[in-house]
Specification:
L-threonine 3-dehydrogenase activity; binds 2-amino-3-ketobutyric acid; NAD(P)-bd_dom_sf; 3-stranded mixed β-sheet; alpha/beta; 8-stranded parallel β-sheet; Epimerase_deHydtase; 13 strands
């Protein structure tokens, strides 16, 4: 009954000819700024509201609407959804894998309580909601090479546990209340203009800064640790394509997406094509154990088959563009 009621309301409220108004939480993280840029080009500057608890730069404020939003404050979120007449919510606020292990209570509050707030809000106001998941939602018992869309998920980090919870709760709300929940499981994302923070895959971004700045890089993972990765342009495009699909085009609500898989040794070789005198040492720390429990190769064949997902960047293509983008900064 609930579902029928919701569906009926949705058809009354739907405004398919108008651009959606979109709220991005955790907008100042690695993915938010780039995503806002693409969505603003597509749907209009004022239709994309960025939010975070951080003080924004001048560029962020000039690029379009930016407001303070604490995802732990339900009333504040509710007020924003009503005031800006939000249709889609993109929920990026989260503590990543390595930093989550340093502060488990905070990770539980942000990643789980915060998620409960946005899910409830999306249900109440019939929002289309996107919550990213991750390769970190798998664990040592999952098949690791390749890791299929549907398999055992017993993650060993609080980040992974919170992401599995998000996947399951979103799918439950979809099934029970007709909520338009959408979720992509991302691999490590590599970007030049915004940095990741507190993840296990961050070494694959740091290497570019250190290689160009000092010609030296110390890697916190062993040379043969294989992990799935993706260049940010591919990651953001997968998200935009996925969000634009009509609900009836989705056979499921959670998909693996990826572009490549490499080890530290392999990315070092690729970077050395540009920085031949790069020297690398290896000093594995607690992040090694996390990486050893994650997928090595991610199987995204269902996203490819069901909504034509196709990445454009392989390892060398990604390295070329990263070096081009960052070289001027260190010259
Ligand atoms: C992390 O390393 O925690 C993230 C992820 C793969 O989800 N980059």
């Amino acid at each position: 009954n609930n579902q029928l009621h919701l569906r009926r309301n949705q058809s009354v409220l739907a405004t398919p000819d108008e651009n959606p108004r979109i709220l991005i939480t955790g907008g100042l993280g690695q993915l938010g700024t780039g995503l806002a840029k693409i969505l603003r080009e597509k749907y209009g500057k004022d239709n994309v509201i960025m939010s975070d608890i951080l003080k924004p730069s001048k560029e962020v404020v000039e690029a379009g609407p930016y407001i303070f939003a604490d995802i732990l404050d339900f009333k504040c979120l509710q007020e924003m959804v009503v005031t800006y007449r939000i249709d889609w919510l993109i929920h990026f606020s989260a503590l990543l894998s390595a930093v989550g292990e340093q502060n488990v209570p905070l990770a539980i509050r942000v990643n789980i309580e915060g998620l409960h707030n946005v899910m409830e809000l999306a249900k109440q106001y019939r929002l289309r909601i996107f919550v990213p998941s991750t390769i970190g939602a798998f664990g040592p018992e999952s098949p690791r090479n390749p890791t299929p869309n549907l398999t055992i998920q017993r993650p060993k980090t609080i980040y992974g546990v919170s992401k599995v919870h998000g996947e399951l709760l979103g799918e439950y709300y979809h099934h029970k209340f007709g909520l338009d929940f959408r979720c992509l499981r991302f691999p490590g994302v590599i970007s030049s203009d915004t940095n990741p923070g507190g993840g296990t895959t961050d070494y694959a971004v740091q290497i570019f800064h250190d290689a160009l700045k000092t010609r030296q890089f110390q890697c916190y993972l062993k040379p043969d640790t294989r992990l799935p990765m993706m260049y940010i342009t591919d990651a953001l495009r997968s998200l935009c394509e996925f969000m634009a699909l009509p609900p009836e085009a989705l056979k499921q609500r959670t998909y693996n997406v990826t572009a490549m898989s490499f080890t530290p040794e392999e990315i070092v070789r690729s970077v050395q094509r540009h920085v031949p005198d790069l020297k690398v040492t290896y000093a594995p720390d607690s992040r090694q154990q996390i990486a050893d429990s994650w997928p090595q190769v991610f199987d995204d064949s269902e996203a490819r088959a069901e909504w034509n997902w196709k990445p454009q960047y392989d390892i060398d293509g990604m390295v070329d563009i990263m070096v081009d983008a960052l070289r001027p900064k260190y010259q």
